[in-house]
């Protein structure tokens, strides 16, 4: 393992113990095995970081293996999206493999099991099979077809493969123990008939292996040393090992399945089935909707690979399922964006500010720093003029001493510019302020040069010059669900908790330095938060997604009374 000092989690302790007990380090091999039946979400990101992180720590190969055993739900689109997500997170796989690569080997092994009397074709309905399964406290009863002859089973299984039967007429089951206390050991299904075109094998196969049969054997074929999965697969471990027992050659590495707890995220769902519902029923715009917990949705919203990796590292690996507050993920995103994003000015709820004593028609370009976190500071030029936009909430006609923004009779600094003083307002017939009039101190220019003003005032607000401002569509996101744990109440449909205000689209104005911003570019809108250019943006229309608020988003709001 790498020499970096850290305490080992229980997964790493398992690996260290195996190495100590004689497993050669060059035999370590890991895998990430997604099903290509949807887009990956934040839970998968943790698994990706675990498996590929172990590969980096132990300098061992990691396979990307697609568990493509159900053609009725799988698509090439999902395969491509998964590969894109893993690469975007910063990882490289040793081999790109598929369960479908092993269909023939799995079939051949199954034939051998039938010949040994360890598998049989069952012709009961799914309802009959379910009834005969028994309960955790009551043994199951054997199928009437359990004692079919080897010859009849071989014949039926081959005919299943050749497509002679309709879906649901036959299945192939392992013959294990109908009285086992582990329900999964009660003659589990190994193959079912599915007459659907496979995205890789086409119409070659009419039968497809179940997960429990395909997964462990795929691990064995690839010589995976450690197969890590989530806790719901703990009862499957006994079956995983039973299947391996049937084919294991002691001269090869025997894969070891071990389980870790899911890390659920608050105010969202991390079930591909539920995410699929949100997409298909139109509650979101697609798998990459920025409100979704999918990796593609988070990427589109402006999250960074480093932030997600740091989040996965922060929550760690545990043995108990836990609900992680989404604010921790947002903290990790904010921490990374603070280091890498340029600071720019944008106004999202504009009101016009006229500097009455600023010369008519005058325009000047002021210097503004791009990011104070930079080792070598860089600057840009921003235009200043007589008419500006400021945030409506940054002005009150009357305010107490704790309000440090613009008000009548008091001074405030315009960021990177001058000190101004509120003088008056213009209102419409409904009493809404349409213009704020102010005067400026021509000798109060901010900056680092000899002309910079030494005057200090308590408040600073941002602005954009109206003649130079670029109109932009800005998408403001809130939690997708109003409930902290939308999966928590099983008696209520999770969709009842969908937040009707999870998306608010507004028109804002940004400084002209953003005129040529491209999809994926990220910025800090000063005093407002972090924003990313959306893929819908065009040369004619800028579109921004709000990624996350600033550190003080939930801090005590300044009193306006």
Explain the overall architecture.
L-glutamine binds at residues 67, 211. Residues 342-441 form the Glutamyl/glutaminyl-tRNA synthetase class Ib anti-codon binding domain. It comes from Paenimyroides ceti. With 561 residues, the chain is an alpha/beta fold. The chain has 3 domains: 10-101 and 212-331, HUPs (Rossmann fold), CATH 3.40.50; 103-210, Glutamyl-tRNA Synthetase, Domain 3 (Glutamyl-tRNA Synthetase, domain 3); 343-554, Ribosomal Protein L25, Chain P. The protein has a 7-stranded mixed sheet with strand order 12-27-28-29-25-26-13, with helices on one face. Strands 23-20-21-22-14-17-24 form a 7-stranded mixed sheet, with no helix packed on it. α2 crosses α11, α7 (211-222) crosses α8 (237-247) and α11 (305-315) crosses α12 (326-340). The two termini are 60 Å apart. The model is unreliable at 552-561 (pLDDT under 50).
Q: Could you report the average pLDDT, rounded to the nearest whole number?
A: 94
- Parts with pLDDT < 50 across at least 5 consecutive residues: 552-561
CATH architecture of the largest domain: 3-Layer(aba) Sandwich
Q: What is the distance, rounded to the nearest whole angstrom, between the alpha carbons of the first and last residues?
A: 60 Å
Helix content: 10-25%
Q: CATH superfamily membership of the largest domain, which one?
A: HUPs
CATH class type of the largest domain: Alpha Beta
Domain Glutamyl/glutaminyl-tRNA synthetase class Ib catalytic: 27-338
Subcellular location: Cytoplasm
Enzyme class: ligase
Binding site for L-glutamine: 67, 211
């Amino acid at each position: 393992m790498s020499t970096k000092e850290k305490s080992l989690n229980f997964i790493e302790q398992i690996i260290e113990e195996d190495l100590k007990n004689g497993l050669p380090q060059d035999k370590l091999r890991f895998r990430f095995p997604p099903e290509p039946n949807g887009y990956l979400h934040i839970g998968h990101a943790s698994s990706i970081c675990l498996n590929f992180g172990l590969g980096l720590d132990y300098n061992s190969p990691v396979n990307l293996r697609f568990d493509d055993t159900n053609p009725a739900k799988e698509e090439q689109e999902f395969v491509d999206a998964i590969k894109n997500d893993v690469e975007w997170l910063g990882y490289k796989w040793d081999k790109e493999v598929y369960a479908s690569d092993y269909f023939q080997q799995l079939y051949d092994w199954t034939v051998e099991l039938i010949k040994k009397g360890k598998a049989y074709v069952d012709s009961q309905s799914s309802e009959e099979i379910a009834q005969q399964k028994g309960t955790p406290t009551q043994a199951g009863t054997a199928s009437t077809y359990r004692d079919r002859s080897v010859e009849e089973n071989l014949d039926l299984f081959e005919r299943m493969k050749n497509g002679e039967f309709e879906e649901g007429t036959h299945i192939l089951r392992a013959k294990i123990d109908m009285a086992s206390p582990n329900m999964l050991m009660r003659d589990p299904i190994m193959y079912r008939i599915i007459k659907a075109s496979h995205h890789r094998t086409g119409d070659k196969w009419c039968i497809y292996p179940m997960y429990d049969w395909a997964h462990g054997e795929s691990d064995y074929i690839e010589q995976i040393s450690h197969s890590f999965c989530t806790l719901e697969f703990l009862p499957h471990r006994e079956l995983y090992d039973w299947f391996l027992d049937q084919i294991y050659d002691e001269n090869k590495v025997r894969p070891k399945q071990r389980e870790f707890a899911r890390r659920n995220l608050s105010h969202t769902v991390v079930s591909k089935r539920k995410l699929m519902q949100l997409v298909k029923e139109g509650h979101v715009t697609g798998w990459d909707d920025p409100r979704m917990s999918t990796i593609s949705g988070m990427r589109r919203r402006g999250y960074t690979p480093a932030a997600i990796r740091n989040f996965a590292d922060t929550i760690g690996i545990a043995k108990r399922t836990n609900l992680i507050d989404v604010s921790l993920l947002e903290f990790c995103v904010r921490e990374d964006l603070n280091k890498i994003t340029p600071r720019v000015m944008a106004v999202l709820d504009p009101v016009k500010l006229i500097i009455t004593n600023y010369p008519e028609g005058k325009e000047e370009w002021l210097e503004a720093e791009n990011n104070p976190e930079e080792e070598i500071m860089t600057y840009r030029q921003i235009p200043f003029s007589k008419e500006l936009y400021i945030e409506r909430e940054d002005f009150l006609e009357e305010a107490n001493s704790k309000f440090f923004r613009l008000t009548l009779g008091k001074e405030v600094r315009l960021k990177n510019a001058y000190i101004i003083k509120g003088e008056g307002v213009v209102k419409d017939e409904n009493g809404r302020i349409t213009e704020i009039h102010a005067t400026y101190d021509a000798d109060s220019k901010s900056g680092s040069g000899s002309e910079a003003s030494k005057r200090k005032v308590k408040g600073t607000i941002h602005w954009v010059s109206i003649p130079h401002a670029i109109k932009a569509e800005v998408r403001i996101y809130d939690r997708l669900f109003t409930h902290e744990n939308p999966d928590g109440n099983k008696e209520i449909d999770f969709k009842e908790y969908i937040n009707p205000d999870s998306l608010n689209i507004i028109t804002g104005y940004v400084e002209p330095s953003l005129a040529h911003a491209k999809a994926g570019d990220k910025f800090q809108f000063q005093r407002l938060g972090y924003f990313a250019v959306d893929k819908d943006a065009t040369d004619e229309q800028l579109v921004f997604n709000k990624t996350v608020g600033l550190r003080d988003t939930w801090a005590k709001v300044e009193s306006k009374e």
